[in-house]
Amino acid sequence: MYNKATTNKRVLVTGGAGFLGSHLCDRFIAEGYHVIAMDNLITGNLRNIEHLFHLPQFEFYNCDVSKFVHVPGNLDYILHFASPASPIDYLKIPIQTLKVGSLGTHNLLGLARAKKARILVASTSEIYGDPHVHPQNEDYWGNVNPIGPRGVYDEAKRFQEAITMAYHTFHGLETRIVRIFNTYGPRMRLNDGRALPAFVGQAIRGEDLTVFGDGSQTRSFCYVDDLVEGIYRLLLSDYVYPVNIGNPDEITIKEFAEEIIKLTGTSQKIIYKPLPTDDPKQRRPDISRAKEILGWEPKISRSEGLKVTYDYFKNLPSEELKTEPKEFSNYSK
Ligand code: NAD
Ligand code: UDP
Questions:
Q1: Largest Cα span, the chain
Q2: Do 241 and 258 share a structural domain?
Q3: Which residues are in coiled coils (predicted)?
Q4: Which range of residues forms the domain containing residue 211?
Q5: Cβ of residue 191 lying under 6 Å from some atom of ligand 1
Q6: Is 5 domain-assigned?
Q7: Is the CB of 195 under 6 A from ligand 2?
Q8: Tell me, what CATH number does 261's domain have?
Q9: What is the CATH number of the domain that holds 233?
Q10: Based on the domain organization, do 96 and 179 belong to the same domain?
């Protein structure tokens, strides 16, 4: 399927064994790059990239980027995607989450500077917190509770944006910042607690679907291929300020659970559980900037994307369908 590298460009993808990072590795391999994936596998899985291991233009480094990052040879681009990303993950490993967004980002900015590489960092709609502006545009500064449970993720990502801009203004580093809104697709972890894998996993196991709160909170779900296209265009653009990438098709979580019930044909029903602290009430990206600067907008409808994702989950080995959240006890704080 893949030929050897067709450009002499080398790209480093941190978090390369995770959901988004592995799709980015695929995209850059397909574009003819030499790809180095780096990951400590805390929430990722080598299965996501095992199809690339036989390629001479693909390398994998098992490394905690919060500690020290070394890559021999030149680098043209760095995509920093290492970070726990689901509320269940960052609640269980809050210190690692803070460190990878802050110390890890600092290490990668230093590496980019040493290699004269361009770096793109993965920020998030969470920097808008529980937003007072709707839909969220890039000029909105957000409404984040720094000491709430989500603060470890949100504030690490806000620091990440600040230090990335500082490296750009102070050192003249070529930087890009993508603010990613809820994205879904194959290779999400079924037990990561996010709404889509939670609902699909429950439907497959014959359990009721757990909607938090009254389900009136909204999200806007983007299919992973659309996101990857937006990130690819942003990296190759000359735009240094943050850009929202997401699908503005907004839906309540209750309606979303109903769509999953229909898609999976389950006879289970919705049950209601308490709303987690600081759970944002509404979220929809304003993507005017991405449209104008990158000529980008999402192309894949939720019904198309959900079908592909459901097919992926249905075909997972049965031991993956278990409910228990991932155990992180091996990792030092
Ligand atoms: P994921 O958990 O699947 O992937 C994250 C990867 O980073 C994992 O493979 C994990 O093992 C690795 N990692 C974590 N800490 C590390 C460290 N210290 N050193 C090396 N590797 C480390 O999550 P994802 O959904 O693919 O998210 C990837 C990035 O995109 C994250 O930065 C996240 O904040 C951002 N993001 C994702 C979404 C989304 O909807 N998926 C939305 C907004 C932002
Ligand atoms: N959610 C839910 N049931 C679940 C998991 C999540 O109702 O089993 C809700 C969650 O409270 C939030 C929305 O779905 O309002 C999206 O949650 P997710 O963790 O996917 O993303 P985030 O809150 O980070 O946007």
A1: 58
A2: no
A3: none
A4: 190-220+249-282+300-322
A5: no
A6: no
A7: yes
A8: 3.90.25.10
A9: 3.40.50.720
A10: yes
- Asked if residue 42 has pLDDT above 90, the reply is yes
Q: Is the CB of 42 under 6 A from ligand 1?
A: yes
| Residue nearest ligand 2's atom 6 by CA | 195
- What is the tens place of the pLDDT at every residue in 193-250? 999 999 999 999 999 999 999 999 999 999 999 999 999 999 999 999 999 999 999 9
Out of 33, 90, 128, 153, the active site residue is: 153
pLDDT tens-place string over residues 120-179: 999 999 999 999 999 999 999 999 999 999 999 999 999 999 999 999 999 999 999 999
pLDDT for 329 beyond 70 = no
Instruction: Return d(Cα 283, Cα 132) in angstroms, integer.
Output: 10
pLDDT computed for residue 333 by the predictor? 55
Residue 168, token pair as written in the block? 């750009």
Residues 39 and 122 in one domain: yes
Q: Whose CA is nearest to atom 15 of ligand 1?
A: 83
pLDDT over 80 (residue 326): no
**Alpha helix positions (H), the chain:** 19-30, 87-92, 94-99, 105-115, 151-171, 195-205, 224-236, 253-264, 288-294, 302-314
Tell me the C-alpha distance between 231 and 225, whole Å.
Answer: 10
Per-residue pLDDT tens for 30-40?
Answer: 999 999 999 99
Same domain, 140 and 198: no
**Which ligand number lies closest to the CA of residue 276?**
2
Residue 78, strand partner residues: 12, 119
Partner residues linked to 72 by β-bridges? none
